[in-house]
Amino acid sequence: MVDTGSPSRGREIRVLLADDHAVLRAGLRALLEKEPGLVVVGEAASGSEAVALAKTTRPHVVLMDLAMPGKGGIEATRRIVALGIGAKILVLTALPQEAQLSDALEAGASGFMQKVAPVEELSRAIRAVADDRLFLDQDAARLMVLHRYRRAGQVDDEKVTAGRLSARERQVLALLALGHSSKEIGLKLSVSPRTVDEYRARLKDRLGLLHRPELVRFALRTGIIAET
To answer: What three-state secondary structure class fits 78?
Structure first.
């Protein structure tokens, strides 16, 4: 499992539910409203409705089903991320698939887990992505590694660029993509936060990547994120 830090504590987390099954939404609402600090601010039955509600309710986390009528979960994820309101997308799926994982993360999702997960696990995932951390359940983590190896024989500009990065630059990039702060990365790599910031600036100049979803996409497509 990839969960790169402790859950968010001491603040209210606003959650938007996006799923076309009313019974599932009702069940999720009932479970989440029993969890301290989690508040359900809306329910959407389609991708378009999820985007519209995200604009008005400004949630911290959207629980996103991928198979919805109209604009599906992938497109809704892309549009909500593009709003720039800071909402994090946690994808809930019945059966995780490699293509779903890749498409969701590349669209800007911050987490991926199965709908059958216990409420304690779901709560931990919500708090993790609210803290701007990547959360993958065990099946999704295995699929991510498989995706890396399926692409291992492909040669493209991104892989050439990634191959020119130093080992330390690759470490910093992977940890940034996973949502670690400069202070946390410094502790892990035994360097100062200022040194990490210098690496961050260097990576931005070399790769032209400004935002975390871009880092995640690059690190996923090149296999760097699986090296941590």
So the answer is: helix
